[in-house]
Amino acid sequence: MRRQVAVALAAMVAALVTVVALVTAAPSATVAGSSTVSAKGPRSAKAAPSATSKLPARGPFRVATTVVEVPLPAGARRALDTEVWYPATSRWGRLVPDRSHAPYPLLVFSQGYDLAVSAYSSLLRHWAAAGFVVAAPTYPYTAPPGPLDEADIINHPAELRLVLSALIGAGRQHSSVLSGLVNAAEVGLAGHSDGGDVSLAVADNTCCRDPSVKALAVLSGAELSSFGGTYFSGPQVPLLVVQGNADTVNVPACSAQIYDEARGPKYYLDLLGASHEVPYVEHPGGKNGATAPLAASYRRVVAQATTDFFEAELAGARGALGSMERAGKVPGVARMVVGGQAPVTGGWCPGSPA
User: Fold this and answer.
1) Distance (Å, rounded) from C-alpha 239 to C-alpha 241?
2) What number of CA atoms fall less than 13 Å from residue 47's CA on the CB side?
3) Residue 353 belongs to some domain of the structure
4) Is residue 81 part of a domain?
5) Phi, psi of 218, deg, nearest 5
6) The domain spanning residue 145 has which CATH number?
7) Residue predicted with more confidence, 189 or 264
8) Which of 262-291 are b and which e, b meaning 16 or more Cβ less than 10 Å from the residue's Cβ?
9) C-beta of residue 104 within 8 angstroms of C-beta of residue 181
10) Is it the case that residue 30 has pLDDT exceeding 50?
11) 56 Cβ partners below 8 Å, 6+ apart?
12) What's this model's pTM, rounded to 2 decimal places?
């Protein structure tokens, strides 16, 4: 908020104090349905690596983070701590929201079972550095340290919709750290494994569809019959499916089912020889299941292709589709399919609709 500053020195000092308070406060904001979103305030973060693909005149950005607490309806068991990464700039020796190119497209990511949001921080930070507001809720009964209950996934589509509503609302509230940063017309979902299942349901299943979603990236996910509803029977959003062809957890048939049932526009990134987690997370102690150079190659391809996809389908940078296709064609690492059928033959996806 801009304020008129009087010539008098005292008024100038008062105005400066007001601006600093607006930037550094940890505000509360009321969102639709009388819920309250509590933003714990921006935390300083190291500058993110430069993204190789960026929107014209935007980025690569430095990245800062905040945590938003999204309450669930009365009687619910918990609130959802949602970490948010956003484009930032340095001011007064600290990172503050960069509103010079705002509002930014919003990406909401859902983590896989028994994987912490922090395991994906490199990928999420890459998106934010490219000019997106990126949010990732922690679903407490499917994230460490637990207690873990994979059946709790049945609640996640409704919870994800609450997160979407809360973040869009926070972007509209002057008191929020996210004020003015979120473009409610450019909302995308992404998720890995069980998180991909949840994101798919909210984007393209009659059980749980949220009309604010405009693009979807499913990373080794699946359709789940336990959600009910029908997949791909209504309006569809642009879809990027990413799958390791050596994945034994969510097998390639799961991604093929998603891809082949979607009408498009759709893209399939086939990661050659990749297992379930290697392309998306970094494990300490050499537990990647692939050589370090190959694992790094998978992650570079995924980061670049997903960034290009969202830049094209959300931010309108149509030239990014060509960059995505090039990023997805790396001999011995990845191949990209545009339209048509998935490059998978045979198999069945456990837990999916027949």
Assistant:
1) 6
2) 9
3) no
4) yes
5) -110, 115
6) 3.40.50.1820
7) 189
8) beebbbbbbbeebbbbbbbbbeeeeebbbe
9) yes
10) no
11) 317
12) 0.84
What is the Cα–Cα distance from 287 to 279, expressed in whole angstroms?
13
Count how many domains the chain has. Answer: 1
Q: Span 6-13, mean pLDDT? A: 33
In a domain, 18, yes or no: no
In a domain, 328, yes or no: yes
For 212, residues 6+ apart whose C-beta sits below 8 A from its C-beta are: 164, 168, 184, 187
Find the helix or strand (DSSP H, E) in which 21 lies.
helix 9-24
Q: What is the pLDDT of residue 282?
A: 82
Q: How far, in Å, CA of 179 to CA of 99, rounded?
A: 9
Structure tokens at 132: 């997106």
DSSP string across 225-272: GGG-S-BTSS----EEEEEETT-SSS-HHHHHHHHHH--SSEEEEEET
Beta pairing, strands 104-110 & 133-137: parallel
pLDDT band (50, 70, 90) for residue 289: low
Cβ count within 10 A of residue 292:
10
Structural domain span for residue 188: 27-338
Task: Count the residues in the chain.
Answer: 354
pLDDT above 70 covers what percent of the chain?
Answer: 81
In DSSP terms, which residues pair with 164 in a beta bridge? none
pLDDT in tens, 328-344: 999 999 999 999 999 98
